[in-house]
TrEMBL record:
NCBIfam families: quino_deg_MhqD. Pfam families: Abhydrolase_2. This is Carboxylesterase. InterPro entries: AB_hydrolase_fold, PLipase/COase/thioEstase. It comes from Staphylococcus succinus. The lineage of its organism: Bacteria, Bacillati, Bacillota, Bacilli, Bacillales. Residues 4-195 form the Phospholipase/carboxylesterase/thioesterase domain.
Length: 197
């Protein structure tokens, strides 16, 4: 997978940066620096091209996920992260997914996968409108959910569904409501607080 790796301080956790639709592996690098410049950074580019825009998985339309492809891409991403952890010598159990929009959505799919353990995640403008059959215990997890009250893509109801996904599985959820489908200064500050929990 196309990616950028930046080494941080010795034994520091690693940000897994996952961009939004139409973005690439450079998009969230400034965010990682502001969140904590001591962390390692692994920033990944989505493998799907939708009308020339990079994405992490296919969809049939806005908010209509191709679930089969989502599952396949989630498996591929997890395999890549395991390989990258060996290649770059970082501890995957200390990795922190940081996603925006489509990147947040594949992050949720990874978090819910039985093969992963993440203790912290920062998810900006997430949407996860599919039925989930597993009830994975996330009680060890701190998660930031930054959502828009006037988001043109994700309804408040959809955002509350994402909150429920995490709360129903025991996660410690920090909710932040911003205006739209966006990454804000308040979101950055909330992310820093969650990292320090």
């Amino acid at each position: 997978m196309e990616h950028i790796y930046r080494e941080g301080e010795a034994n520091a956790p690693t940000f897994i940066l996952l961009h939004g639709t139409g973005g690439d592996e450079k998009d969230l690098l400034p965010l990682a620096t502001v969140l904590n410049d001591k962390y390692n950074v692994l920033s990944v580019r989505g493998e799907i091209s939708e009308n020339g825009m990079n994405r992490f998985f296919k969809r049939h339309g806005e908010g209509q996920y191709d679930v089969e492809d989502l599952n396949y891409r989630t498996e591929r991403l997890i395999t890549f992260l395991k390989e990258a952890a060996q290649r770059y010598n970082f501890d995957l159990s200390q990795a922190v997914p940081v996603g925006f929009s489509n990147g947040s959505n594949i992050a949720i799919s990874m978090i819910l996968h039985e093969d992963t353990i993440f203790n912290t995640a920062l998810l900006y403008a997430p949407l996860y409108p599919i039925e989930i059959t597993n009830d994975k215990d996330l009680s060890q997890m701190n998660v930031l959910l930054s959502m828009g009250e006037n988001d043109p893509i994700v309804t408040v109801e959809d955002s509350k569904n994402v909150i429920d996904i995490f709360k129903n599985r025991g996660a410690n959820v920090t909710e932040l409501w911003v205006n739209s489908h966006e990454l804000t200064q308040a979101g950055v500050q909330a992310g820093q607080k969650v990292l320090n929990q």
